[in-house]
Amino acid sequence: MGWLSGFGVTLRQIGRPKVTEHFPKEKRPKPVRFHGRHVLNRYEDGMEKCIGCELCAGVCPAKCIYVRGADNPIDAPVSPGERYGFVYEINYLRCIHCDLCVEACPTEAITETKLFEFSFANREDAIYTKAELLVDDDGRARRQPWELWLGNEDDDTSAWMRATAPSGQAIYEGRVGWSGELGFGVRAPEVGQSATEDESAFTEDAPAEPVGTVDTEAGGAEPASDHTGGH
Predict the structure, then answer these.
(1) Beta strands of the chain (E only): which ranges?
(2) For residue 141, is it left (φ>0), alpha (ψ between -120 and 50) or beta?
(3) DSSP for residue 190
(4) Residues 6+ apart with CB under 8 A from 150
(5) Burial group, residue 83, by CB count within 10 angstroms (0-12, 13-18, 19+)
(6) Please, are residues 208 and 225 in contact by the beta-carbon 8 Å criterion?
(7) Is residue 50 within 8 Å of residue 85, measured between CB atoms?
């Protein structure tokens, strides 16, 4: 009768709610801070956020990002700064989706969608160029033929950036410290340690330079007065 015990597992599951989803026609909802396929963001006026500083490429542990900056054309600037990202490539055969590039970016230019269901038939498709990474005129990710998009998996592309913007400083939790995005405007902060999204509820101002404050408490030099906090 021992061989019948195997059927007991099957019989016990009959009548229970099914957890299997009909992938690829359906997808399970992903966390708001999920690390997926990257996008290059634009400001609300359409200008690109990337300034070609190459900090994302420098911090990447997998060395999968290649960036080259160029001077902005005087007559038709691409970004608000002096330079812009002339070349931007991500090799997804190397990318580990650690999001260190997102944290390093000073202008919130690079963020991640919730998409990870994409495969490549050749190496060229795996190396995303700026033309594929830059959001379209609606602020949405440009869909590629080898990607499986279902629904709006690019609604919360900057969730991880907004979550890490406080840099561990509780006084920055719930405060807006980022610029608006094309198609979405200025996104609301995530609820953090302060458990509030209403910036008017804060009773004290954010410090001018949280890092300098910590250094002073540790016996270091006084913080520079002309520095301001931010992401």
Answers:
(1) 38-40, 65-71, 83-91, 110-112, 127-128
(2) beta
(3) P
(4) 24, 25, 26, 27
(5) middle
(6) yes
(7) yes
Query: Six-digit token pair at 105?
Result: 């970016």
Q: Which two tokens stand for residue 202?
A: 């804060």
**61 is written with which tokens?**
């542990």
H or E segment at 8?
helix 5-13
Question: How does pLDDT run across 143-190, given as a tens digit for each residue?
Answer: 999 999 988 899 988 888 888 887 777 777 778 888 999 999 998 887
Predicted TM-score (pTM) of this structure:
0.76
Bridge partners (DSSP) listed for residue 163:
none
Whether pLDDT at 223 is above 70: no
> Which percentage of the chain shows pLDDT scores above 90?
49
Return d(Cα 189, Cα 176) in angstroms, integer. 6
